[in-house]
Amino acid sequence: MTIRLKFFASLRERLGANEALTLPAGTTVAGLRDLLLARSDAHAELLARGRAVRCAVNQQLCAEDAVIGDGAEVAFFPPVTGG
Predict the structure, then answer these.
(1) Is 90 exceeded by the pLDDT of residue 59?
(2) In-domain check, residue 82
(3) Is there a domain that residue 70 lies in?
(4) Please, which contacts does 20-25 make with residues 24 or more away whose CB atoms are closer than 8 Å?
(5) pLDDT tens digits for range 61-72
(6) Does residue 33 contact residue 47 with C-beta atoms inside 8 Å?
(7) Number of domains into which the chain is organized
(8) Is residue 8 a contact partner of residue 75, using CB atoms and an 8 Å limit?
């Protein structure tokens, strides 16, 4: 399945804005985060489990056990963002 991945605020500054990713069906937000943690030192630092990072699937805040569907938009962002 293909998803759209987005980073916002300070995460966007270091990791980039948007990209398309292909994931196995049934991938959870936690599984996606694990894949991203292994990508680079910057990803590992900014998305580390001890850091406060929020996630939304299709613009709805969610927990890491949320299953990502085909075509979903998944966004990661710090808990406080300006507008």
Answers:
(1) yes
(2) no
(3) yes
(4) 23/68, 25/1, 25/70
(5) 999 999 999 999
(6) yes
(7) 1
(8) yes
b/e code 30-49 from CB counts within 10 Å (16+ = b)? ebbbeebeeeeeebeebbee
Distance, in Å, from the CA atom of 50 to the CA atom of 17, rounded to the nearest integer, reads 23
Tens digit of each residue's pLDDT (9 = 90 or more) over 36-55 = 999 999 999 999 998 999 99
| pLDDT score recorded for residue 79 | 84
Of 48, 66, 47, the residue nearest 57 (C-alpha): 66
At residue 77, what is the residue type?
Answer: F
- State how far the Cα of 12 lies from the Cα of 70, in Å rounded to an integer: 23
Residue 49 CB contacts under 8 Å (≥ 6 apart), including other chains: none
Positive or negative: CA dihedral 11, 16, 17, 20:
negative
pLDDT at residue 77 in the model: 93
Q: Is the residue at 16 inside a domain?
A: yes
